[in-house]
Amino acid sequence: MADETGRSGAFSRRGLLQGGALALAAPALMRRAWAQGAGPIRIGFPVPLTGAFGAEANDQVRAAQIAVKEFNAAGGLDGRMAELLVRDDKLNPGEAATRTLELIEKDKVNFLVGALSAAVTLSVNNVARERGVLYNSISQSDAINEAKDFGRTTFHEALNPHMTAGAVGRYVFPKHGKRVAFLTADYAYGHEMVRGFRRAGEALGIEVVADIRHPIGASDYSAFLPRLAALKPDVLCLCNFGRDQVVSIQQATEFGLKRTTKLVAPVLLFTARKAGGDAFEGVVGGTSYYWRLEDSVPTAKAFNDAFRAAYNGAVPSDYGALGYAGVRSVLESVKAAKSTDTDKVIAAMEALRADFYKGPQYFRACDHQSVQSVLIVESKHKDQKGPDDVFTIVGTEQPDEARLRTCAELGHKA
Amino acid sequence: MSGALTAPAARGGTGRGGRLLRQAARHRVGLTLAVLALFPFVAPYEALAVNILVLGLYALGFNLLFGYTGLLSFGHAAFLGAGAYGTGIAIVHGGLHPLPAIAAGVVLATVIAAVMGFLAIRTRGIYFAMTTLALSMCVYYAFYQMEPLTGGENGLRGINVPALNLGLVSLPLIDPLVKYYVILVFVGTAVWLFSRLLASPFGAVLEAIRENENRARACGYDVARTKLVAFVISGAVCGLAGALNAIHLSIVPIETMHYAMSGEAVMMALLGGMRTFFGPFVGAATFLVLQDGLATLTSHWQLFTGAIFIAFVLFLPSGIWGEVVARLKRAGS
């Protein structure tokens, strides 16, 4: 012990400090060296493979792989291939932040795409924008458009609650009636949906007869249903998601609410509908994509065929399609920019006018929200031809910036 | 990691092993820090290393109550979360420098710990566990509902501290290795203070309460007050862990306060060895590396971590580090 302290005392302090400074700077120097190299184009893809949305997340991965495969088959970026680095974010924002740090710091990804919950996507976005890494979000969120969370590197491929609820409201209210009730999961996403409906309804002169909030993850809705039945609204908007949506629709159906009231779920998911079964009959909702779009849109047909060929005839789900679009938007922009440099790719993405799988779409300049169509679907029941034939597309709201909240409202400077 | 510490002692034979162990016990803070200083080079990636550091500190703070005082709390996520939110809110809404922001987080956690401790300390055993659980859920919902401040379900974002400005120097926290060592300075200080506390007469009273509360009372110690002080210190340490976590991740998810997080503290302390000083860090490292590695391999990682945890409880009830220390002692005697 004694000699050791003696020796370290003799050790030059300046040398130690210089060495230490070099050791601390080494990772930064190495990273710079790496970034200039021409390895594969790496896309980090954090999604909740485990947790409540595991099925949707796996579909996102499968669809994203197709976008990567197509890019590589077409020769990549002058022979530079793309690869997808999938990470399980466990539907936990903290885990997602850790995984995003791993993807950026250890795996040195060029871009990030992914996430499937508002909280997780905001967390990935915060980590990515602080480090100047381009992130294309494929999860619904209103907050990600707002100036507070937006960064120059932030893109939002998915719909947002405002667009979806607005489109559904504009379809449903004139057709099914103006006396509207809300049953809302009490968290940001539910509130955003209600705001979207109310905004659309104001112009149409709706009357809100009830705005009931239930805790997220509730399993018993019998306390709310008698009140709703007594009010006899024309339309009941179920502003909840996932299992909450399935359970509340099942219980409302059992309660006989459908006799007097049209049930509306702003975001009606392909996977949730398949899991929920018969109870969904006649429920109207919005979605970003449904595979039967192939009947009218050629790019949807091409995407579905590629997906079917790769995965034994399965059709992609709505969130799956977003995985494809999210990755493809980035890779097409890389091709257009002829570079993986973040600034050049951002410029290319802002200029992108795409028709990848659902018709025309583009990123709005101020908040990088993808302006795209919203499909209104109604759930089938007895006339289903096969297990995947669950919806009829009853309306399409064409892409229109006027349907979004204005840039000024979101806090962006003009 | 444990190998680095045990190897020389295990080779040392009977007499020398015992002496080495005594030496190691005397320099436990130095040894802990030496291992932690080398850790980022062994860990799979830096962000995970920081997680282990932070959650190790969290488990250490929890263990003051669990391992040393013998009180099983199921509400420590409230302190982790309060520390994180306190710091996050101070930076995002108050625009404070990170250092006073960390202090704000620790103070908030301490205040909440004082209130919770005051109410919970009157109960014991399973009732203590249930009271702390219930109170921590109250704290959870309070923070969940304060959406303008905490972001509610979406979590608090924007705790961006790209560099720690210390007047003369500015440390680039955006560099993962620099961030690790900056956080290690905080953790190291806390570990040192913690060790001093345990070595003090106060630490001895804690263990006396754990072994026999009535006897400690008969010896004239104010058991209730000692428990409360231990509860508050434990909460403050967990609050510091939360504050560091907020700066590390740049976000505070509401999940930080969820009772599942309280359960993780119990798991990490048990896995590492609740009766040892270094055990919580070993537990945190094992737990997180295992979870990380398995999650990369399979989507059924929960099944495997569960099975491994059961195996540890059945076959290594004193925890990984507890077992290592016990073996060294046997070899040394």
From TrEMBL, chain A:
Keywords: Amino-acid transport, Signal, Transport. Residues 40-380 form the Leucine-binding protein domain. InterPro entries: BCAA_transport, Leu-bd, Leu_Ile_Val-bd, Peripla_BP_I, TAT_signal. Pfam families: Peripla_BP_6. PANTHER family: LEUCINE-SPECIFIC-BINDING PROTEIN (PTHR30483), PERIPLASMIC BINDING PROTEIN OF ABC TRANSPORTER FOR NATURAL AMINO ACIDS (PTHR30483:SF6). Belongs to the leucine-binding protein family. This is Leucine-binding protein domain-containing protein.
From TrEMBL, chain B:
The keyword Nucleus does not apply. It is a multi-pass membrane protein. The chain crosses the membrane at residues 29-59, 65-92, 99-120, 126-144, 180-207, 228-254, 266-289, 301-321. Keywords: Cell membrane, Membrane, Transmembrane, Transmembrane helix. Its main location: membrane. It is found in: Cell membrane. This is Branched-chain amino acid ABC transporter permease. It comes from Methylobacterium isbiliense.
